[in-house]
User: Which sequence fits this backbone?
């Protein structure tokens, strides 16, 4: 083998050292994780008993959440978490004082007194998440919830079928409704509802039919591309155990969002929530 002259070896060594000393290129840097606006979290009595506010907030920050909409049964949990992280938590007022009222609240007039009392004491960005289906949306208690949202300029976070959503819009055509879980409806039905109601948005909490293996379902892709400004992500911590899924859910959301055009992904991940709710932060208590 031919020997390399000594000067050449010296210059080769110097060149290697020089290359190694160069700063890493921006392309080689790790990308900043996509921020997430989580539109569907609960911090109810059984959650704060097992997961103190400081630990819950630590999980939200570990997940890289930009902001989080939080409701609870009772409202005490929401206030605990808001006190712990007012920069992160957007409080939402739920009608339920205990979990057991999910199926009975719309028949209980004392719920109205409870809501009115909390609205005098605290500030919120929405009322919900509440469960109501079909004709029950026209019951007096539910009607009063729709009225309270209008009076206090709040969004409604409604876990409902399409019929109940239609009934709430008939009560107040100017209502602003966040449709929990997109009603567990098909993407075709969701698109139909979004075309009909300009003040309807959908959270995708506790759904996985829209994406699998980091790929967005073709039918849902059409919905996201047609209405990039009308969807938000959410975890739905309806049981205490779900809190330990917040970080993984944010990771999974970033994975499938990466299969969409960047602008659409950013809108669904955080920009839509930011546009809808962040301006309301100035109305919240210090």
Assistant:
């Amino acid at each position: 083998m031919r020997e390399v002259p000594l000067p050449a070896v010296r210059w080769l060594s110097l060149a290697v050292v020089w290359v190694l000393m160069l700063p890493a290129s921006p392309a080689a840097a790790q990308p900043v994780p996509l921020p997430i606006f989580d539109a569907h979290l609960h911090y109810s009595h059984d959650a704060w008993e097992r997961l103190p506010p400081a630990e819950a907030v630590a999980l939200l920050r570990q997940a890289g959440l930009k902001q989080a909409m939080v409701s609870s049964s009772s409202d005490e949990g929401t206030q605990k978490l808001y006190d712990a992280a007012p920069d992160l938590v957007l409080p939402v007022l739920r009608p339920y004082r205990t979990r057991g009222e999910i199926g009975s609240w719309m028949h209980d007039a004392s719920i109205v007194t409870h809501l009115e009392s909390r609205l005098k004491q605290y500030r919120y960005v929405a009322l919900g998440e509440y469960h109501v289906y079909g004709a029950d949306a026209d019951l007096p208690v539910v009607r009063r919830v729709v009225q309270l949202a209008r009076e206090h300029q709040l969004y409604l976070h409604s876990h409902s079928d399409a019929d109940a959503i239609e009934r709430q819009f008939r009560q107040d055509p100017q209502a602003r409704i966040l449709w929990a879980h997109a009603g567990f409806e098909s993407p075709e039905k969701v698109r139909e509802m979004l075309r009909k109601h300009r003040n309807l948005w959908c959270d995708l909490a506790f759904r996985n039919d829209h994406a699998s293996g980091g790929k967005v379902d073709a039918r849902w892709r059409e919905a996201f591309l047609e209405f990039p400004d009308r969807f938000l992500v959410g975890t739905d911590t309806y049981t205490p155990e779900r809190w330990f899924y917040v970080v993984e859910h944010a990771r999974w959301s970033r994975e499938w969002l990466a299969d969409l055009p960047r602008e659409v992904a950013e809108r669904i991940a955080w920009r839509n929530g930011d546009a809808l709710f962040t301006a309301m932060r100035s109305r919240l208590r210090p």
Notes: Confidence is low (pLDDT under 50) at residues 1-28. DSSP finds eleven helices and ten strands in the chain. The chain has one domain: 39-283. The first helix runs from residue 6 to 21.
